[in-house]
Design the sequence.
């Protein structure tokens, strides 16, 4: 059973998309970041991506790196991440860890899987791990009944789309534009095309990330995707000092957005 | 197949190719691809285009002509007997990559990758740079071939290597100071990858060393192996034998792989990589990745790296900007694990001593990077002499050192180290030749400044 898949399917049954919120553990400190995750759920997030801070976040733009750098310097580690996972699980929302590969490998892949499952985590998203290199993680996630979410991109060939989606469990993460994380004025139709191509090769839900920052954009993406992933916009609430309350208000705006999907002609 | 140091060597017609990496870029357990999916298509495109290009006679001819007429290859080998007097009586020969156009081995790789860029129809190149040598080389190749060029350089390094920043700008490149993270080479690489993933349709990433995701470690090795292919033939021709050891400095490791590759099958030849020991590996302030690191994943490949218990990359320290990198190419990790090459750390002080020694005894100002290899040669020569081993019969041991670059860019750092500033002095100046009378006004031993301050910007 995949909890993230069930949750996203449940949202679909209500005629809406799921809202997936990303926040990194440890910014501005561990407790506040956990409170922000709980507030994101309070405002309507269905799934929380619990971000593992990493020193070399090559796929992230300046907003996320600005928040993650101090967390790295403060020595925030997997123990703090697991505490955040437990806190999110306690709200009833679905916690999914988002981590570059090295922190997981350093912690120990099998140990990570066991501890994540014990903390109530549903699985992990690994932005710099492709299925080709993921042998150990495929085995460990299978053994501990965890979701594993790999990314597909507009540049993925049909063959890679099929192979990557086949390796996923829970949902597929469609990186909507070519580029790093960050908010954008428009999400663009590359996302819609990518989702359509992905649906041809998998029955799994497809969630779209990279660029969504407000309810209107969320409504637009909800018109074609099963889940709307928002990261940098949440982080900006914390960077600009609006704290957990700002995170909650943003969640409410986005949660309203995913409930009024703009129908695709 | 192998030619040991004790049997009479034969000249090879075809260069020997190592059996690694495999088809997906693995050197044993190292290498591979740890990158966002968005880059896979571009990496596949590069791999395919490179495989086609390297057997294309038109490319081979164009590349050879550029190396000959533009770079100035083959670079000579030079014996340094006065320097070698300080190395236990070993004979030392230098492979003179410092004499290449742009002043280092970096040009070998960028000409190959620039031709590849044109072949895949892209008009813009980006690159990372630490000391600035790879940035200068990339800007040079871009100017030569009419490509637009952006260089990412850590803000810290733009200050340490201001001369090279000016060179790149003269050559028409845009230099972007990187202000994220530790503001050095590793962050420049992150920023270049971000540019690439955003602009991949128009842009090729000219990676500077044998690290990064497949195919970079293999491709850069192949473009750099000319160093060892030439040197092996030159040493055989001049001396009728192979060297007992081949030494090179290792940051990412491209000059070392370049000179090692031809000798990998020669099992009697020791391959010695010299890493940047900074203030000493036991101080934690160093860049000796294999000596002091552990396996993990950084910048797209599995290899040794400097990391903490949370898997965060640890900042490296070296007086040499070009070696100041917390990772290393996966092929070096493999050569280390199979025992084919050995890796040792050389401290800032040891490197600067060898730097000064080569200046004074041979009239050659080396790059501080290359001075690490020179220091390794001095030490190895002494070890071999004290054991009465290494050479054959009555012959002294023969050491081949890759002089990967020249030291013009390092003059400011060196003058601070040797005390032309007004800093409190701590150590007697590592490296002045005590047998030589300095001329008036020359740097003397008593002028040294605190080592770790010398590499930093005033």
Sequence:
């Amino acid at each position: 059973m995949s909890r993230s898949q069930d949750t996203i399917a449940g949202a679909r049954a209500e005629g809406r998309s799921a809202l997936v919120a990303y926040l990194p553990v440890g910014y501005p400190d561990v407790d506040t970041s956990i409170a922000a995750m709980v507030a994101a759920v309070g405002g309507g997030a269905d799934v929380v991506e619990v971000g593992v801070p990493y020193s070399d976040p090559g796929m992230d733009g300046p907003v996320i790196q600005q928040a993650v750098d101090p967390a790295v310097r403060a020595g925030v580690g997997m123990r703090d991440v697991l505490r955040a996972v437990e806190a999110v699980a306690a709200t009833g929302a679905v916690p999914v860890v988002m981590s570059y590969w090295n922190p997981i490998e350093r912690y120990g892949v099998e140990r990570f899987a066991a501890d994540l499952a014990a903390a109530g985590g549903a699985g992990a998203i690994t932005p710099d791990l492709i299925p080709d290199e993921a042998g150990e993680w495929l085995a460990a996630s299978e053994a501990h009944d965890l979701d594993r979410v790999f990314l597909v991109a507009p540049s993925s060939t049909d063959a890679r789309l099929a192979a990557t989606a086949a390796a996923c469990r829970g949902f597929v993460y469609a990186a909507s534009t070519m580029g790093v994380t960050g908010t954008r004025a428009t999400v663009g139709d590359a996302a819609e095309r990518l989702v359509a191509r992905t649906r041809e090769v998998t029955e799994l839900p497809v969630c779209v990330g990279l660029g969504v920052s407000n309810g209107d954009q969320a409504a637009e993406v909800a018109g074609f995707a099963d889940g709307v992933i928002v990261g940098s916009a949440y982080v900006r609430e914390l960077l600009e000092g609006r704290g957990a309350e700002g995170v909650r208000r943003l969640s409410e705006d986005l949660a309203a957005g995913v409930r009024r999907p703009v129908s695709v002609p | 197949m192998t030619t040991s140091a004790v049997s009479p060597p034969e000249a090879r017609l075809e260069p020997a190719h190592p059996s690694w990496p495999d088809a997906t870029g693995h050197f044993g357990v190292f290498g591979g691809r740890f990158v966002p999916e968005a880059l896979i298509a571009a990496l596949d495109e590069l791999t395919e285009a490179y495989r086609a290009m390297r057997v294309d006679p038109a490319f081979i001819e164009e590349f050879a002509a550029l190396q000959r007429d533009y770079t100035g290859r083959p670079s000579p080998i030079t014996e340094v007997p006065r320097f070698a007097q300080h190395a236990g009586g070993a004979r030392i020969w230098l492979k003179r990559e410092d004499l290449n156009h742009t002043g280092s081995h970096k040009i070998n790789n960028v000409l190959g990758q620039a031709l590849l860029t044109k072949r895949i129809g892209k008009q813009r190149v980006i690159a990372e740079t630490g000391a600035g040598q790879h940035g200068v080389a990339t800007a040079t190749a871009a100017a030569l071939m009419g490509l637009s060029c952006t260089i990412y350089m850590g803000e810290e390094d733009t200050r340490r290597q201001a001369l090279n920043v000016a060179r790149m700008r003269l050559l028409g490149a845009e230099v972007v100071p990187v202000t994220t993270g530790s503001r050095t080479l590793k962050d420049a690489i992150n920023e270049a990858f971000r540019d690439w993933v955003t602009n991949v349709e128009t842009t090729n990433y000219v990676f500077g060393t044998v690290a990064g995701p497949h195919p970079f470690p293999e491709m850069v090795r192949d473009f750099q192996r000319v160093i060892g292919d030439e040197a092996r033939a030159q040493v055989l021709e001049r001396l009728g034998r192979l060297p007992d050891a081949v030494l090179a400095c290792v940051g990412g490791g491209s000059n070392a792989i370049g000179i090692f590759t031809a000798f990998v099958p020669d099992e009697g030849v020791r391959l010695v990589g010299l890493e940047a020991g900074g203030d000493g590996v036991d101080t934690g302030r160093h860049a000796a990745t294999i000596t002091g690191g552990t396996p993990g994943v950084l910048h797209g490949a599995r290899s040794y790296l400097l990391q903490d218990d949370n898997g965060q990359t640890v900042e490296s320290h070296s007086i040499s900007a070009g070696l100041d990198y917390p990772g290393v190419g996966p092929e070096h990790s493999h050569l280390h694990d199979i025992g084919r090459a050995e890796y040792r750390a050389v401290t800032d002080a040891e490197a600067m001593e060898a730097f000064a020694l080569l200046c004074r005894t041979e009239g050659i100002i080396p790059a501080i990077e290359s001075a690490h290899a020179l220091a390794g040669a001095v030490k190895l020569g002494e070890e071999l002499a004290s054991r009465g081993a290494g050479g054959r019969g009555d012959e002294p041991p023969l050491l081949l050192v890759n002089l990967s670059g020249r030291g013009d860019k390092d003059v400011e750092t060196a003058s601070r180290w040797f005390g032309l500033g007004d800093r409190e002095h701590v150590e007697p100046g590592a490296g002045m030749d005590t047998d030589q009378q300095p001329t008036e006004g020359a740097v003397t031993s008593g002028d040294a400044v605190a080592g770790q301050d010398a590499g930093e910007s005033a």
